[in-house]
Each structure stands twice: as structure tokens, then as C-alpha cells.
Amino acid sequence: RTRPDHLSGDKAYSSRRNRRYLRRRQIKHTIPEPKDQRAHRKRRGSEGGRPAGFDSEIYKRRNEVERTINRLKNSRAVATRYDKRAYVFHGTVTTAAIKLWLRP
């Protein structure tokens, strides 16, 4: 197994448990803090802790990657993965990516 350098996620993954898990394994993350969690932290004052680090530029990049993967899944062969062998599936994904790239 390999440990990722950075992890991006949406607000659904913004829990103390997830952040603690990532911190313990020294994985940097970009996960926005929901308004209710932010308000609760501020209400607790100095005991609430400091705000979670958040880089909006990296978060925008996550959205681009997510949309690109969704476009790739418009190809039925990529979405359902009929291919048994990994190298054949890799070729299918590459073909779908080229079709996406060449689309006007």
C-alpha cells in the first residue's frame, strides 16, 4: 500500500474522526468545514480549537477532476468495466479520454 500525499474531499467527509485519522497518518487534506461545524467551534471559544486548514485553489482542482471522471463514465465500457484484464480496461479508459480530448 502507498500513502497519498494529499487528499481532497467535500463537506460530507468533514468530521473530527476523519481529520484525526488523516492527521495521525500525516496525510495533508483539503476538506471544507460546514457552517454548522464552524459555528459550533466558534461558540466553544478558545476550547473550540483553531479552524481547519483549507486551500480553495486545491478544492477547485478537485471539482475539475470529479467532473472529468464523470465525463469519462459517459462511455458505457468505462462505467460498467466489462473488461476482465486491467491492461484492456486501461486501453478503454485511454480511448475514452482521447475521445473527450478531441471533442470540439
Model description:
By secondary structure, this protein is mainly alpha-helical. It has a domain at 1-55. The protein is 55% helix and 6% strand. The chain is built from five helices and two strands. The chain has helices at residues 16-24, 35-43, 56-72, 76-80, 86-102; strands at residues 6-8, 28-30. It has a two-stranded parallel ribbon. Strand 1, helix 1 and strand 2 (28-30) form a beta-alpha-beta unit. The radius of gyration is 19 Å and the shape is elongated. The mean pLDDT is 85.
Protein topology:
Elements lengths: L5 E3 L7 H9 L3 E3 L4 H9 L12 H17 L3 H5 L5 H17 L2
Parallel strand pairs: 1-2
Tell me the radius of gyration. Answer: 19 Å
How helical, in percent, are the residues? 40-55%
Spatial strand arrangement across the major sheet: 1-2
Q: Which sequence of SSEs, written as H and E, runs from N to C?
A: EHEHHHH
The helix-and-strand class reads mainly alpha
- Quickly count the helices: 5
Mean pLDDT: 85
* Beta-strand percent range: 5-15%
Major beta sheet summary: 2 strands, parallel
Net shape: elongated
How far from one another are the termini?
39 Å
| Strand tally | 2
Spans of at least 5 consecutive residues with low confidence? none
Oligomerization status of the protein chains: single chain
